[in-house]
Amino acid sequence: MKSFVSQLRFHFLGITRSKPLYILLFLECFFVGFSYIQAVDLYREASLAAQESPGLASGLSPFDGFLVPLFGAHSVLISILFPFLTIRQVAVEYERGSYKILDQLSSRGLPQIISGFVVSLFAWAMSLVPILIAIAHWLTISGHVSFSEVVVLLIGHGAFALSIISISLLVAHIMRQTAPAVIIVLSMVLGFWMIESFAGSVPSELGTIAKSLSFTANLKAFERGILSLAHLGYFVGLGGLFLGLSKSSSKVFLSRHRMVTIISSAVLGSLLLSQVAQTLPTSYDFTENRRNSFSPAIEKALSQVKNPIHLQIYLSPDDSRLYDFERDFLGRLKRSLRHLTVEYAYTSRSGFKSSSDDLYGIFKLSNSSKSAQTRSTNEEELLPIVFDLIGISRPQTEESFYSGYPLVASSNGLDILFYLILPFIIVGMYFFVTQKRRLKI
Amino acid sequence: MKHMNNNSIIIKNLSSNINGCSFLRDVSFGIEKGEILGVIGPNGSGKTTLMETILGYRPKISGEILSSSSDHSCEIFYLPDGVQLFPEHKVHEVVSYFANQFKTNSEETQNFLGRFRLESHLNKKVSELSKGFQKRLGLAVAFMSGKQILFLDEPFDGLDLMQTIDVIKVMKEQIGLHHSIFVSIHQLGDAEKFCDRLLILNEGQILGLGSLSDLKIKFGLHESASLEDIFLSALQKETI
Question: Is B2-85+149-166+176-239 in CATH node 3.40.50.300?
Fold first, then answer.
């Protein structure tokens, strides 16, 4: 334990003096600052409109209004710049030859890998500081922040960072050089973005598998305010898998056979994890306005349905109605109905028959005894069909309690804070921690 | 254990190849307790490969490595050639890190720092040390490891004459009867002064092994012959 603590302390000293960390923090001020200033301005404009028409106020949620954009700007930087920071820690030891000495220490293997992982998580936590400053500012201008919404975003982005860190560590141990390792991890990140858009336009088996593998696609659930065990389990499982494989690849001599085995295990393990994680049905809606859930009475009624229900969707993948339907009604229905299967009739753009197809635009619901269909994507029209199909009466629902949080605030002075003061503090911190100081013996 | 006699480690018929290319061929020797065994040979002769194969850092295709413990690598500390020890850390941080890892007490640590004249450099970054002092730091770490056998790959490379003399003196004092050193050296003059026995290696094969006088007899050289004469004679004989 003592040797692990000393290892951790040593890694910690290394990362707090590493230029990439301060460059990341420096850039973060601009990214997060820009995102926050834009959010405050847009929120003000929407709030002014809500003063004219009070009905619009219920749509003003700080979650979408500024929290998700803030974390979104942060995750772009984490995806692109964080691999440099994590990979450098490891690859540089291979490049300098010191890994042969590290391999002879009592903390070799997993303790050294866990220590590198922990300090990378610490660096990620440091990168949250500009976000926390933005949230603190939002509160000081009388903005509302829901604790549970911040928590779900922190969990989601933390799990995302965990995966980025662990895959960076694995690739660094396999490649043993900074440049190729960074190229591979960045290609993967770009690949995830491509997979996400590809999978979004092709709701096929392949598309679904590809989407389930993508880090960014898995992060989306948290950005909708859902704490899903499937997505969290995938991220945590991947973290464990990649850290375990990092240990196997950290041997001084890595044969080609071993390297191929490790890479194959990483690919197959990720595929397996993504599929196993999807069997975890539990998810929690952390949003204050419960946008991802039906009313509690409806949820309770639907959760008691035991017979399987099949839904066929006759919409082309690039139809915006499909996106709205999946995000709103289908998302809620999937969270409430345990035995729901969904079938997409049009699996690709080339498979799109034609707009004159009689079935186009239809949502067809069926169970073992009945079927019903509609062209509507509206929840108020869809729910009665569902209840009619399952043969129970729709429970009475209470009125929506969410009145929204309009905020007319100015972004004046925020540019000085995020573009001048915070970057200046970060540069100052770098010089402070790297300055020469007298050693007290 | 009986077969170990006075040896810290015995290597028997060690052969290795990398990607089908033979690097070591049937290498056998022992390192005696308390001795300094130097390995000399031209570039690419297999000196580093020999050390790293013994440690398991490179694959062996055959051979046996015997030591007093079941895992011989636990008894060895290997200081590779050209290693940069954490250049962005300060010397005292590196020393304290290794002292914690090797469970070296502070008295011993201070002793090694003093002997390798590192005390006045503790507050410097490793990258700010001269090459000679970076070598000294590596050697101090090697002795701090407390391992019985030290494998040192080119420890005098880059040191000036005064530094080499100084470091040799310190290392000779440190060895006592508790350490054995297996060292690869390019500078034959230093090897002659520093090593108790020498192993001449060329193309992965041992051309000669023994003390300076043993080697002179083996290669039929006059008593006044230097290690350089022995080395050249060994290589010429092999070429013939």
Answer: yes
